[in-house]
């Protein structure tokens, strides 16, 4: 091992430093952690590692990023931000977070069309796992990717683009199976402002009967179900573009009440770490996420689950969960419903179907969560649920694989890109059937 590689990596006797995921619900089993500071160092790490996986901001909740070999953090790679006004794109380093990118874009005339609830997540990690925001017209964050710079299994740096790769739909959302992403090119839209209004006490009956209407009434809509409450479904967050906001938009027609502004810009029920609510207009990047980029996200000590169902069948799926809510509600810290438009990414949970993401944040009680997940999955089984790749689920591999028509194409792509299986791990074998090649 060269001096460069020794410097970039913690050896096996430092295994305790490899650490865990952001929430602490999965401890990595890797033998060492490398944090290369250049593309050349990264290429050397790849060449020297028979088994390795890329690591972003550790916001996955399961073992999707783990390996029996080397974890490679992209956080120490040089940060880049290259704006192309002519094409309306920006190319950023894979380890960049959405919050850092958005704040830089905020100084320009450009914007991202959508963001996830947390601006703290890395671009490469979010795009590789199908992370998303909300809005009936918005696809996952991965769909904004028009180009990727990747260090592949043979140690080469390659550039893949939407225009040049007929199989680009299999390369963007690849679960880390094709290489280590060092830079991402994202499509942009013209700058815009957003106001965020929160409504309380939406009745379950209104949610079931008017779900599509509610999800379609603003630029981005999130519903926070209160599964323990048999009458009120909970809160509705409406994020509206100010240049398209309709003053007549009034969720009271569905039986909800507007959250009053308690003090200054702080709306009723607003957490100090959340972005400004109460109908106060502001830059897109300070309103589309739920949490401020300069504050600690969420609570951390938790386990997350999310299942995607076809949006036209979502009311049925929610009724099925509501009917058994007494079996899991006490374990839920927060829940969220978000819409994701259909896309053409082979492994996207929204592949070719407009979807509703049913998200559940659980108490960090692994045994209890593993007990209730099969209950939730059984209730959702008639609706062909697709799990979020980076969150907990107990669906068997064949159940997951049956939901992806292009899975065989992806397996072939992975075998061509990584014939020795450097980037494979137990998660990919268990869920996608990507076997380790024989030595």
Automatic annotation (TrEMBL):
Its EC number is 1.1.3.41. It holds the Pfam family ALO. InterPro entries: ALO_C, FAD-bd_PCMH, FAD-bd_PCMH-like_sf, FAD-bd_PCMH_sub1, FAD-bd_PCMH_sub2, FAD_lactone_oxidase-like, Oxid_FAD_bind_N, Vanillyl_alc_oxidase_C-sub2. Keywords: Oxidoreductase. GO terms for molecular function: xylitol oxidase activity. It is an enzyme of class 1 (oxidoreductase). It comes from the Bacteria. Residues 23-191 form the FAD-binding PCMH-type domain. PANTHER family: D-ARABINONO-1,4-LACTONE OXIDASE (PTHR43762:SF1), L-GULONOLACTONE OXIDASE (PTHR43762). This is Xylitol oxidase.
């Amino acid at each position: 091992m060269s001096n460069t590689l020794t410097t970039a990596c913690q050896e096996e006797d430092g295994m305790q430093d490899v650490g865990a995921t952001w929430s602490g619900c999965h401890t990595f089993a890797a033998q060492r952690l490398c944090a290369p500071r250049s593309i050349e160092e990264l290429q050397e790490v790849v060449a020297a590692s028979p088994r390795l996986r890329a690591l972003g901001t550790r916001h996955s909740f399961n073992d999707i990023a783990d390996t029996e070999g080397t974890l490679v953090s992209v956080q120490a790679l040089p940060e880049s931000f290259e704006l192309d006004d002519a094409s309306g794109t920006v190319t950023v380093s894979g380890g960049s977070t959405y919050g850092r990118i958005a704040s830089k874009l905020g100084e320009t005339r450009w914007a991202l069309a959508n963001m996830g609830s947390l601006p703290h997540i890395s671009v490469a990690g979010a795009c590789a796992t199908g992370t998303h925001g909300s809005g009936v017209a918005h696809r996952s964050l991965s769909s904004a990717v028009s180009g990727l710079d990747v260090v592949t299994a043979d140690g080469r740096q390659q550039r893949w683009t939407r225009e040049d790769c007929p199989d680009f739909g299999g390369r963007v959302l690849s679960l880390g199976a094709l290489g280590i992403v060092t830079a991402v090119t994202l499509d942009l839209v013209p700058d815009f402002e957003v106001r965020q209004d929160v409504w309380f006490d939406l009745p379950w009956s209104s949610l079931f009967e008017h779900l599509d209407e509610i999800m379609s009434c603003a630029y981005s809509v999130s519903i926070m179900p209160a599964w323990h409450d048999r009458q009120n479904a909970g809160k509705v967050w409406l994020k509206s573009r100010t240049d398209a906001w309709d003053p007549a938009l009034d969720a009271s027609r569905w039986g909800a009440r507007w959250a009053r502004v308690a003090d200054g810009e702080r709306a009723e029920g607003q957490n100090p770490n959340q972005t400004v609510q109460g109908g106060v207009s502001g830059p897109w990047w300070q309103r589309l996420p739920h949490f401020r980029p300069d504050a600690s996200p969420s609570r951390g000590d938790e386990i997350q689950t999310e299942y995607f169902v076809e949006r036209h069948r979502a009311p049925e799926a929610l009724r099925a969960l509501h009917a058994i809510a007494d079996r899991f509600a006490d374990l839920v810290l927060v829940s969220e419903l978000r819409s994701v438009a259909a896309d053409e990414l082979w492994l996207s949970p929204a592949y070719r179907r407009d979807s509703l993401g049913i998200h559940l944040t659980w108490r960090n009680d692994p045994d209890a969560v593993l007990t209730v997940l099969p209950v939730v999955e059984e209730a959702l089984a008639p609706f062909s649920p697709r799990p979020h790749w980076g969150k907990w689920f107990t669906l068997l591999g064949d159940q997951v694989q049956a939901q992806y028509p292009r899975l065989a194409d992806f397996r072939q792509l992975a075998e061509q890109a990584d014939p020795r299986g450097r980037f494979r791990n137990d998660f990919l074998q268990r869920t996608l059937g990507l076997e380790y090649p024989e030595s």
